[in-house]
Amino acid sequence: MSVALEGNILVTGTSRGIGLELVRQLAQKSGGGAHIYACCREPEGAGGQALRQLSAQHPGKISIIKLDVADEQSISAAVEAVKKKVGASGLNLLINNAAINKPASPASLLSTGKKDMMEVFETNVAGPFLLTKMLHPLLQSAAKSCSAAEGMSCRRAAVINVSTLLSSIEKCPETFAMAQMYPYRTSKAALNMLTSCQAENFRADNILVAAVHPGWVRTDMGGEQAPLTTEDSVLGMIRVLSTLSSKHSGKLLDWEGNSIPW
Ligand SMILES: NC(=O)c1ccc[n+]([C@@H]2O[C@H](COP(=O)([O-])OP(=O)(O)OC[C@H]3O[C@@H](n4cnc5c(N)ncnc54)[C@H](OP(=O)(O)O)[C@@H]3O)[C@@H](O)[C@H]2O)c1
């Protein structure tokens, strides 16, 4: 059964691409009581312009929060700001969407160095790890405030880590030739393990944790050749998120709800 997403929802990396579209569609489709915490690195600068416009179109529904997921102090400050706003209601849904792919595509072995590897892991793995760890008490509060009969869902309390088909070790023989991307692939495989660990760790709290592949999407990262628009990818992802339950916790799914092997 598909139900509208509700409550306090936080999305990272919302200045453009899939993150911006997630905020747009969540503002349109979530229930009346929903509030979206749209995180970006530059709320007041050029990077936050599209978000500010979106926020003006949905008065009272979107709060823009400054967050650089590669910076621990920035994560702490963002968590404090969100904590003050949500109070005892806690956080219902965290979407770890922000990520980078370095060096620029095609990111072959020869063009990749240690600095690329470290930067990509800092943003794509350490960022979601620390942010989720610091937001865990708020997710626990949201999970506790629902009746025990409710079960796990993205309406109650959930963490969604935006992963990729390219993270799948089983699929690597099929996907390697089209995109080598050593730092990106290994960071997303690590994000999958993070998803699995968080799912086990948070199960007793009734917090659902899943990884979602948005498809190959036409964004700055996905490039112009990508077949999917951000609208269709996010439409699918929100539909999938609305149907998740305990049996999906610890799984990697695509934007159409199909399971992807680790
Ligand atoms: N596009 C695809 O085909 C595709 C396929 C599979 C998975 N994905 C995944 O989908 C997610 C979104 O990708 P996208 O295509 O929308 O990418 P994108 O167009 O490159 O946008 C990336 C977003 O992440 C933000 N970001 C990067 N580093 C950040 C940091 N340190 N702190 C906070 N925000 C940061 C960017 O903010 P700035 O504007 O400040 O740089 C931007 O808002 C990523 O997790 C990506 O791995 C994408």
TrEMBL record:
InterPro entries: Fungal_SecMetab_SDRs, NAD(P)-bd_dom_sf, SDR_fam. Signal peptide: none annotated. It comes from the Eukaryota. GO terms for cellular component: cytoplasm. GO terms for molecular function: oxidoreductase activity. It holds the Pfam family adh_short. Transmembrane segments: none annotated. This is C-factor.
